[in-house]
Write a structure and sequence with these properties.
It contains three helices and 13 strands. The protein is mainly beta. The two termini are about 25 Å apart.
């Protein structure tokens, strides 16, 4: 379980094919503090299991199912990625409940700079529209954000300067692919109503 509050930006050191999956080596500092093999670290919002730690690096294996649903398969050396360790019991929950289970990849269609913030609009498959509400939560590349507006299969978020400067959100341009995780609470409500 995560909160969507990014702890640091890591750098992809390597991406190596392992069968149909990929072994990713990520350079990091803060998320390695007190981390060990088998711990979970979200990479651009995708929960991954640490399989090795060495100095300022950790490794994970992204399996085929992960590569089908996320952008992890497109990582190349030098790419910057958002990193967050799983929360510990008793930690403050500053963002929202984030599982690290990506639902779908969305596409950035517009980045607009305003005087004090940035508006980013993202398109997504229309079948996921039911999980978005105005001023509800959405996780984009691991960042917990609030939906400013939603219309059909496009939603917009407003990015404050702190988030823009301390995550990889500032690298997004028109056409960028992003990992999207919709709010789990809405999915549970839908499931309960379906099987009541």
């Amino acid at each position: 379980m995560f909160t969507g509050l990014i702890e640091e930006i890591g750098i992809v050191e390597s991406s190596t094919n392992i069968g149909g999956g990929k072994k990713l080596k990520i350079k990091a500092n803060k998320v390695l503090e007190n981390s060990k093999i088998d711990d979970s670290i979200a990479i651009n919002g995708c929960c991954q299991t640490v399989i090795s730690i060495d100095n300022n690096y950790f490794e994970v294996i992204a399996i085929e199912e992960t590569l089908r649903k996320t952008t992890l398969g497109s990582f190349k050396r030098g790419d910057k990625v958002n990193l967050e360790r799983a929360i510990a019991v008793g930690d403050r929950l500053g963002g929202h409940y984030v599982q690290g289970h990506i639902d779908i990849v969305g596409t950035v269609i517009k980045v607009l700079k305003e005087s004090s913030d940035w508006l980013i609009s993202i398109s997504f498959p229309i079948e996921f529209r039911k999980y978005l509400v105005n001023v509800g939560s959405i996780c984009i590349n691991g960042v917990s954000l609030t939906v400013a507006k939603v219309d059909a299969n496009i939603f917009t978020v407003a990015i404050i300067p702190h988030t823009f400067e301390n995550t990889t959100i500032n690298k997004l341009t028109n056409g960028s692919k992003v990992n999207l995780e919709f709010d789990i609470l809405g999915k549970y409500v839908e499931n309960m109503l379906k099987f009541k």
